[in-house]
Amino acid sequence: AQRVLEALESYEHPVRVPVELDAHRYDVVIGPDLLARAGALLAPLLPQKRAVVITDVRVAALHLPKLLAALAETSIEAQVFTVPGGEESKSLAQYGALINDILAHGIERRTAVIGLGGGVIGDLSGFVAATVLRGVPFVQIPTTLLSQVDSSVGGKTGLNANTGKNLIGAFYQPLVVLADTSTLATLPKRERIAGYAEIVKAGLIADPELFAWCEAHGGDVLDGDPAAQIEAVRRACAFKARVVAADEREQAAQGGRALLNLGHSFAHALEACFGYDGRLLHGEAVSVGLHLAAALSVRLGYCPGSVLKRLDAHLRAHGMPAGLDWFPEPLSAETLIGHMARDKKVHDGRLAFVLLRDIGDSFTTRDVQMDVVRDFLVQEGC
Length: 382
Ligand code: NAD
Ligand code: MG
Known about the structure:
Bound molecules: nicotinamide-adenine-dinucleotide, magnesium ion
Strand content: 15-25%
Largest sheet: 7 strands, mixed
Strand order of the largest sheet: 1-2-9-6-5-3-4
Distance between the termini: 50 Å
Mean pLDDT: 94
């Protein structure tokens, strides 16, 4: 009965997580059935009763009709542009075709761009919004757990380059983010696991209470329990909003926004090994990366082994990838190191790592020698 009451309450009053930045503030609105109420939620915020909706084929089939009906209810005229799904859509080629198409159909400075989809659509549509006519209002409607907990806060938009992921882009903040947790019902389990890894990451970085909450309720989130999903998105967005507000453009000399890269040096290298073809999802790579970051922290003496045990136990209890043994074949340490060295978080040839002292206690360092990492990777099963 408590569950039902809570669910009813969150229907009436979606949760709002404010993101407070130097020159801009916006809300991440979190709750069930927000798509059906998008017209009412957006009408007061849009400068013009007109919007360009960017989405991908799969999300269009599943969730676009609801959004269009809701916009029509409040007389917001919407023009839809659909791109293929997948990471390949975050390319200069797709961006070029899309932005020319949008311009050809006519867009004004006050026309909003609405991105409906996962992180790929969020990054692509955000970059279109940032650059078309030098910037138009942007609304993000994330439909994957990963994009709701991660890309909905922080204003990073962009594309992949031939030499690597996310190397082209801009900081561009939305007017509002609508995280409709009902859209998660159609998300495959594998995608839920991938998004969940970023929630665990948030807890590990600086929110021990969130990590403990994950230990208690992570199974519910992964099984698709609506109330647990709302609470997980709320906690993860609130965490990221705190970090981003303190270091909007990732310029802090120590800590700050760079902490959000916990596990990501390894994750990006793993993704590069697999060539972004869908065999390895970003969040799956992050899950392995979290294990590796914790294991390296133990190996370097920063962190007790009990922390690694606790993390691995949680990941494995929920079928999450928790080490290099998750891959069917051993990877080459040399190849992984090579990819890490090409990561954009390299300064003066030294690689930035985020390491742990404890659950919820992390720090950035540039002092890790590459050959130590190489030995470590071999010991981990490379
Ligand atoms: P994605 O956008 O590719 O979505 C994954 C798949 O799920 C796609 O095939 C999509 O069509 C489908 N999908 C989306 N919503 C669905 C739904 N409700 N039901 C069923 N299927 C659905 O991947 P993602 O994991 O959401 O995002 C990954 C991307 O996000 C990466 O490119 C990453 O770089 C980016 N990202 C950006 C930020 C940021 O701060 N800007 C943060 C994290 C990740
Ligand atoms: Mg990530």
